[in-house]
Structure formats: structure tokens, C-alpha cells
Amino acid sequence: MNILPDYILLKPTLTLCMICLCLFGCTSVPPTQYQAAQENGAQGYSHIQLSDNQYRVVFKGNKSTTENDVKNFALLHAAELTTAQGYNWFTVVESDTDIETKDLTRVGPSTINPIQGDTTCGLLGCATPSSPNYAGGEVTTKQVKENIMSSLLITMGKGDPKTPLEVFDAVQLAKNLRQAH
Prior knowledge:
By secondary structure, this protein is an alpha+beta fold. The chain has 4 helices and 9 strands.
């Protein structure tokens, strides 16, 4: 016969569930996939037309997205945009990669032992009170990656380029980058 209430028997199960929630809640964020940004400043690709054949192409990834993937996704969008506009090649006039960071501050435990009180003895035994000592804790601040963004200024063209070694064939580049991802 069980003399403990049912809710006490659930405590180990609830504790295990809470531990699992904490562990799975702290898992890392998956990298940003190749997708259109849903709004201005959101993760994914976007572009702005600057002239008839010039665009600013941007890809923004989260902290788990590698710098190489962000650059490749910006190039892939430039290639897709070039063919969608009826051009067959583009050149990168300007490129920039920016890593957004934030400060993470951590307060460590005290490095000083607790303060011990006087030992007193009574009828039931002896006791030595102590109080925690919070002075002297270590404070550290480090920068952690929050987002990463690649921006390209491209000029599109048709036909044979004047300087073929300085241009990207849009169809071939898109095919190669899709196979790599």
C-alpha cells in the first residue's frame, strides 16, 4: 500500500521533464537557409534596384550561419536576379561583409570563502553559522556574433563582356552554388 500522495510520486518525473526542457531549450539555432527576407532587416536575401542594370544585393544570416555561406547566398541571389532581369552576366563592383556582435556580460562567483561565525553548542549539538560572501566576484564581458551580412553592388550585362575574367556567368554560377548547398 502506498502511503505517499500521488503528487509526491510525480516529483521525479516532473524534475526529469524540467531538466529536459532546459537542455533542449538551450540548443543552438539552426543556420539561416537560402530564403527571401520577409521584411526589411530580416534574415534572408533582399535587393534594391539602383539603376536599370545595377542592384544592391544583401544576404543576412544568423549567428549559426557561416561567413562563407552568407557570401555564397548573396552571390546566388545576384545570379538569380540577373537571369530574372533578362541579363546573362554580372560583375561585382563592391562587396562588404559585416558581422553584428553584442556584448555578453557574465558575473562569476566570489573567490573569497564564506564568512564563518562563532561556534555555539547547545543541547542538540554544535553549530557554526556562515554567510555567503558576494564580494570579489569576477565580471567578464565578451562580444558574441549575433548576425552576419554580405552586401554586393552588382552591374548586369548581356552578350559578350568586354572583360570576361571579371564577370560571373549568372546561369553557371547559380547552378554551381545550388549544387554546393
